[in-house]
Amino acid sequence: VIGRGWNRVTSDHDPTAHAEISAIRDACRTSGDFSLAGSVIYTTCEPCPMCLGAIWWARIETIYFASDRGDAARIGFDDAALYREVSLALPDR
Question: Is 20 a catalytic residue?
Answer without folding.
Answer: yes
